[in-house]
Design brief:
Elements (H helix, E strand, L loop, with lengths): L1 H68 L13
Length: about 80
């Protein structure tokens, strides 16, 4: 009978220790999850910026191509000043 009681007490103490350890682990995991969420948000923002910059660069390139492909108008000769 005493052995069962001591075994139950040991199990109870072990369960308390495991609960404390699990609680600490959960806190650590939550902290790491928050950090990862912040990094993902930052990465998404950077990706969006890169996409916008690339779109602007493509637009500038298209404008340059349009300007280069248009025939250039010749200016009338300058009138000489006397």
């Amino acid at each position: 009978m005493w052995e069962k009681l001591l075994g139950s007490i040991k199990d109870f103490i072990l369960a308390g220790e495991l609960t404390r350890q699990n609680t600490a682990d959960v806190r650590e995991l939550r902290k790491r999850n928050e950090e990862l969420n912040l990094l993902v948000e930052r990465l998404a923002f950077e990706i969006q910026r890169v996409r916008e910059n690339e779109a602007h660069e493509r637009e500038k390139l298209l404008l340059r191509l349009e300007l280069d492909s248009k025939p250039k108008k010749k200016l009338p000769p300058k009138k000489g000043t006397k």
